[in-house]
Amino acid sequence: MMKNITLIEIAYKLLTDSLLNCTNGPFQVPASQKFLENLTSTYIIAIIFSTVLCLTTVAFGVIHLGYIGIYVTHPYRRAFVLYLAGTAPFVSSFALISMYMPRIWFLAHIMSFFYFSIALYFVICLLMNIAEGRQQIVRKIASQSKKLSVQTPPFCCVFPCLPTLEIESRKIKFCELMVMQNPAVRLFATIISLILYFEYQDASMVALKVLDFIFLPSLLLGIYGCHILVTTVSKLDELIPYRYIVVFRLLDIYFMFFGLQQPIFDFLARAGIFGCGTLMPPLETAFFWKNFATIIESFFISIISTALLKPSRSALFDKYPSASCSSPSAESQGSITSMSTQESKA
Predict the structure, then answer these.
(1) CB contact at 8 A, 169 and 156
(2) Is residue 276 part of a domain?
(3) What is residue 234's DSSP assignment?
(4) Cα 94 to chain center, whole Å?
(5) Are 228 and 149 in contact (CB under 8 A)?
(6) How many CB atoms lie under 10 A from the CB of residue 168?
(7) What are phi and psi of 317, to 5 degrees?
(8) Distance CA 10, CA 12 (A)
């Protein structure tokens, strides 16, 4: 019985407090000037390295935005792709700022999370734009005798026997609404979280965890709806030239790493992995290194997306010379011209 009580107490401490007993401090998060004046060599190296990677990521982002603005014709499609291309620079920049200014780590995290929530919706808007809407999706998938697959993450592991459903416009719309509700709910959660944190500071941590738990179903529903739509619509051959699956997978993996880091580093800090800290309290020390990891991830996402989504390889860039030759619209236009020529000869 004593052992069970001890385990419960340990679990409670890991959720609400810490296993450490730091009697010598630091107990407060320092202002940025004081923090930067007392940096150790390890922190200096980390900040310099992060700054270089972040600036490189932002430079890649500027190049990406330029190419998108020049070579993507459709205005709505261009807007969606511009937002998605700005994800890595935005998240990386906020992470770097919070490394220089430790007191704003929570603002950086929650704003980046909100950006991801909108990106999740925009990646579905991009899918619908490429596939020409719900009615066209239903018609094309039905013509191939395929069904709506709901055996997708994050619920496929918990419910392994989920059925396949007949494809219908209302079901596609329902999945869209599942994705759409997430940024709306996340906006509400973000406002409440910011109010709690700036009013109560560290005393709000338990309330913030409860809030995250309350809004977790909304996030899972959004991710689930997104995966259902992408898994179903990706069966269409029309999507292949656009390399849409690459766009979605990069965002999906990036969001997964970003979302999992926060609770992992929080747990490690409360378990004592980062010690009592020399410049900052344990929790803020952990989040400094979490931001360091986020900047590295953002850099690699930029590199990979640059390599895999070059204008010459994706029909999204329909005005790019080599892409326009192989894009679906160019092919259909070519076939129409050919048919017209044959008719005139006849």
Answers:
(1) no
(2) yes
(3) T
(4) 14
(5) yes
(6) 13
(7) -90, 70
(8) 5
Assign residue 248 the CATH number of its domain.
Answer: 1.20.1070
The pTM of the full predicted model, rounded to 2 decimals, is 0.85
pLDDT tens-digit series, residues 280-291: 888 888 899 999
Give the contacts of 146 (CB within 8 A, at least 6 positions apart).
167, 232, 235
Residue-wise pLDDT tens digits, 79-122? 999 999 999 999 999 999 999 999 898 899 999 999 999 999 99
**CA-based diameter of the chain, in Å?**
94
- Enter the tokens of residue 277: 């800290």
Domain assignment present for residue 343? The answer is no
pLDDT of 155-170, one tens digit each?
A: 666 666 677 777 788 8
pLDDT confidence band for 22 (50 / 70 / 90) = low
Instruction: Judge if the upstream peptide bond of residue 154 is cis by omega within 30 degrees of 0.
Output: yes
Determine the structural domain holding residue 193 and report its residue range. 41-321
Q: Is residue 284, in this structure, part of any structural domain at all? A: yes
Instruction: Please report, rounded to a whole number, the percentage of residues in the chain having pLDDT higher than 90.
Output: 43
